[in-house]
Amino acid sequence: MFGQPETDLMRTSGLRLRPNDLETIMGIPVLEQTILKAKGLSAEQVATLETLGMNGKADFATVGSAETLVEILPGLDAAVAGRVMEWAVGAAPKAAAASSSTERMIIDSADAVYCLHCKTRQPKDYKAGDLCPSCGKQAEPVQSCYWCSHSGPGKFCRSCGAEFVSLSEFDLAVLLKREGVAKEEIAKRLHDMSQADKDTLWGRVKRPHL
């Protein structure tokens, strides 16, 4: 009869059991056993879980991870353990997704100024010629332009766009301009030039003009 299982348990234990108590004693429900086997567990492995005291899907939360499941079921394939835990407790968040929430992309404004010496970003009230608050040096040394004779900070002349050259090579740049070298090529040519070629240019700079 339908009520017979409860009667037998009552006779052996002396306790009146509820339906949920019967499920606990009987182990993992049949439907969940079927799902576990579909995920790759063998009948023996399911039985082992029951022996360990697991009575259903909720108990996998105590296991916590696929690695722990492999540890309590020696010989279990890691991929199978992963599928079982994903079904039981949900997929673990991916490391890339977790890190993306903490990483920030920093975009500089077009007028951001960095110290040429220590690379520290200058404060918003920075003005050309100010000293860097980090290293104490002039963040953007004011330089003279060999092309248009204007002066200013930065790497390029704000008047004509020519790339500044070091003060020690200023006269060489002026010579190259006078000899017809394009504005865009002068700084690059000096950068790539050997010391011997520069010495030759210096000889032409120092030669008296006739």
Summarize the structure in words.
This protein is an all-alpha fold. It folds into two domains: 4-93, no CATH class; 143-206, no CATH class. Helix content is 46%, strand content 2%. It is built from eleven helices and two strands. A two-stranded antiparallel sheet has the order 1-2. Strand 1 and strand 2 form a beta hairpin. Helix 6 packs across helix 7 (78-89). The longest helix is centred in the middle third of the chain and has 12 residues, at 78-89. It is rod-shaped and about 100 Å long. The protein starts with a helix and ends with a helix.
Give the structure's gist in a few sentences.
This protein is mainly α and 210 residues long. 46% of the residues lie in helices and 2% in strands. It has a two-stranded antiparallel sheet.
Instruction: Please indicate the percent range of residues in DSSP E strands (runs of 2 or more).
Output: under 5%
Residue share in helices?
40-55%
Structural class: mainly alpha
**Series of secondary-structure elements, N-terminal to C-terminal:** HHHHHHHHEEHHH
- Strand element count: 2
The radius of gyration over CA amounts to 40 Å
Q: Biggest β-sheet: count, sense, barrel?
A: 2 strands, antiparallel
Structural domain tally = 2
Distance between the termini: 128 Å
Integer average pLDDT: 80
Low-confidence stretches: 1-15, 19-25, 95-101
General shape = rod-shaped
Strand adjacency order, main sheet: 1-2
Count every helix, treating DSSP H or I runs of 4 or more residues as helices: 11
